[in-house]
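Journal club prep, notes for RB
We'll compare a predicted complex against what the paper describes. Inputs for the pyridoxal-5'-phosphate case:
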Amino acid sequence: MSKIPFGKPIITSEEKKIISKVLNSGTLVHGPKAKEFEEAFKKFTGAKDAITVSSCTAGMHLFYFSLNIGKGDEVIIPAQTHVATAHAVELTGAKPIFVDSEYPTGNINISLIEKKITKKTKAITVVHYLGNPVDVKKLKLLARKYKLYLLEDCALALGASVEKKHVGLIGDAGFFSFYPVKHITTGEGGMIILNSKKYSKLLRKKKAFGYNKSLDQRVYPGLYDVDQLGFNYRMSELHASLGVIQIKKFNSFLRKRSFNFKYLESKIKKLKEIFIVPNLKGHISGSFYCFSILLSKKIASKRFKIINFLKKNNIGSSIYYPHPVPRLKFYRDKYKISKRNYEIASQFSDRIICLPIGPHVSKKDLDIISLNIKKIIN
Ligand SMILES: Cc1ncc(COP(=O)(O)O)c(C=O)c1O
């Protein structure tokens, strides 16, 4: 284990206490904690509704499935993303259509989207890559013109905004992840946010087997009917109770991430042969998910040497993401996509090193990171 891990959840006595309280309550699902977490998330983001789910992937799959996106349909997504963004489409039977990235953010290149729209397109799903928001407002007009759903994968973007609106609220829905290295954690878990209640009832029903009555609507316990197909994508009370505690701490987490980003940037910005992926500010504002450097073409082949050197010096790192999705075996084999496509997305996959700036990282840690980065790059 690295002494400065890439990500580390901040778990204090508060989280431990709430878990044991929930365990002692005997109510492990269908209880007040999921509702409390949803209310807190709604308040924090300004959403009209927030729906807990078992993961971000589950949330995206649930949305596509609920809106009847499936076989014969296409969903436009970025090539540079976690495989979850593509799998959520693929699982419905629909086809993901990949779009290359842009510099300097690595986000989907908006200017390439319109020519990928066909009669089969049902949705555009953007990913706020590394927490830097895509300019979703620009895409809204396009989505309207072609009557498409516009969705936002916000797995790395809690706290990011576009013109002061929290990400996830400009499109039809936003999806968050609470996996342990994310901004806040519930162990595993996710949240869907909506800017209207139009799909709330449907999504809540489909995330719980398609029951016609929720637990509190049942006249006799255990008596219900099922009038639709659905999943079990619920979040347990144990997971939700962690979310209730963690969301309260988010602002202090974000302040620390922002400080860490700027401090590390000041230390290594003069280094030649690396390019720092910016954290956007201004009307589009990022979430300081991590500190990413892109190696120049000249030193790109030394990436694993650099990563190993950092590891030997107890510095954790990560790669977001190791391949553009169309380069992953499953997608390559299925869609016969040429490895040469998605040039910018490939450059991010092949040259990036992501460094830790989470709230677990101290100023002293950042000094160690910058010292070692300088040593190995120079
Ligand atoms: C952009 C993106 N979307 C979705 C996911 C999947 O999130 P979850 O593990 O909560 O399903 C991840 C995971 O890291 C991700 O990076």
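Talking point for the session: Residues 55-57, 81-82, 84-85, 127, 153, 155-156, 177, 179, 190 surround pyridoxal-5'-phosphate (CB under 6 Å).
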